Amino acid sequence: MPVAASAIYFLNLRGDVLINRLYRDDVGGNMVDAFRVHIMQTKELGTCPVRQIGGCSFFYMRISNVYIVIVVSSNANVACAFKFVVEAVTLFKSYFGGSFDEDAIRNNFVLIYELLDEIMDFGYPQNLSPEILKLYITQEGVRSPFSSKTADKPVPNATLQVTGAVGWRREGLVYKKNEVFLDIVESVNLLMSSKGSVLRCDVTGKILMKCFLSGMPDLKLGLNDKIGLEKESQLKSRPAKSGKTIELDDVTFHQCVNLTRFNSEKTVSFVPPDGEFELMKYRITEGVNLPFRVLPTIKELGRTRMEVNVKVKSVFGAKMFALGVVVKIPVPKQTAKTSFQVTSGKAKYSPSIDCLVWKIRKFPGQTEPTLSAEVELISTITEKKSWTRPPIQMEFQVPMFTASGLRVRFLKVVASLHMIYLIKSRIAITLSYTFLQVWEKSGYNTVEWVRYITKAGSYEVRC
Predict the structure, then answer these.
(1) pLDDT digits 0-9 by tens, 242-258
(2) Which of 34-48, 106-120, 170-184 ranks highest by mean pLDDT?
(3) Which of 84, 144, 187, 326 could potentially form a cystine with 457 if both were Cys, beta carbons 3.0 to 4.6 Å apart?
(4) Is 281 exposed, middle or buried (0-12, 13-18, 19+ CB in 10 A)?
(5) What is the pLDDT of residues 42-64, one digit of tens each?
(6) β-strands 218-223, 408-414 pairing
(7) Cα separation, 355 vs 329, whole angstroms
(8) How remote is the C-alpha of 281 from its chain's centroid?
(9) What is the CA radius of gyration of the chain?
(10) What pLDDT digit, counting tens, does each position of 320-368 carry?
(11) 281 near 206, Cβ under 8 Å?
């Protein structure tokens, strides 16, 4: 069930009430005293953000030097309550010039009361979008003197924006040069054993878009996911095209995505917001192409000497290359002296992190550079425990390489006859093969620009 909040309080660090709003009559006005006595004065603020006192539950969160407390008298959705608090603070910051503290609340209490009446009705959360609320609550807050953010000017057609189905985009947008930037960002996460077996491997990604389009365009994005291709072949009554397909896990969408159409056709259809936004996030656990293989050999020769040999093999094509490759090889804390021999790049000992840091500015594909190092250790009498070897860590960026196999099959932009679009697609990630197609009613020419980059997330190899 939703929040169904009975009251909301804004308190300072001393427990003084700055602002409060009662939405229901099932709690008394002295509920803040119970929070102050049983939670604040007992120094239990950091133990759990949800407390039950008597027949009421208290959900509280600290933002800067202010505590926001929601009081409910019945069973409620805790996650929804904290989500409401986070979105409300974002809304207040947009009015106050980016600041939210005790001074901002004291200087803007009239505006906060007006916003609290709009964003919650009888204890149920309502619209918390700053772009929409600023259309009809045009009062400007008292901004911090350290804030350089200028006030957003109100736009017409406020009623349409509040009640319409496309509340995240206003009408009347006009650009001389219409552009769409599509960024698909992925990170490869790996944990490999010392024997070369993969213990954990996945790819996390997100699709970012930056839209500067006139009017109210309708976009349709198609990916090479397995379910989407199967659904498309069923709708078109023809077999799916051959090629690599992937299975997306844990997919979340922006509110602009038409979920009904996605469930029926398995394509991402949406009217984009103006500017930059995150279209979707996903995770891939099967069929991951690892860009590097690390083969370490570490020998402890007595208590005062070690030999380290590390070979890093690039698995991607010979015409590709990686940039900014960093290999961090752990060594004991009692390391005194090191000497290196590398076939590519530069290496040094970093005592602050107890690692041998091997940097390769440009790493070609299908190559196997090696590092050989002799490590001299300080012999200690008190040190009797054996050295626990932390994993080797890697950092890298690989342009034009695919880790997940994800690709954009098409991008359709439906526009009116008088609109001319320049579509630029910039894809930063691991795409095996990507091409963008733009459909429109006017038949104008388009320009596509595609860029691929794969980067390391938590890329670790045990040694």
Answers:
(1) 456 788 888 899 988 98
(2) 106-120
(3) 187
(4) middle
(5) 766 667 788 887 778 888 888 88
(6) antiparallel
(7) 5
(8) 8
(9) 28
(10) 999 999 999 999 988 899 999 999 999 999 999 999 999 999 999 999 9
(11) yes
- CA separation for the pair 35, 131 (Å, rounded): 34
Distance CA 67, CA 10 (A): 6
DSSP 114-162: HHHHHHEETTEE----HHHHHHH--PPP---TT--PPPPPP-S-HHHHH
Q: Is 180 exposed, middle or buried (0-12, 13-18, 19+ CB in 10 A)?
A: buried
Distance CA 77, CA 354 (A): 46
Quote the pTM value.
0.63
Report the interhelical angle of 109-119 vs 78-96 (nearest 10°): 140
* CA-based torsion, 130, 134, 140, 145: positive or negative: positive
Contact in structure between 215 and 234 (CB atoms under 8 Å)? no
Residue 337, both tokens: 């002296």
Work out the average pLDDT over 180-204.
89
| Helix, strand, or coil (residue 236) | helix
Dist. CA 223–CA 284, nearest whole Å: 13
8 A C-beta contact, residue 268 and residue 221: yes
Strand partners, 6: none
- Coil, helix or strand for 330? strand
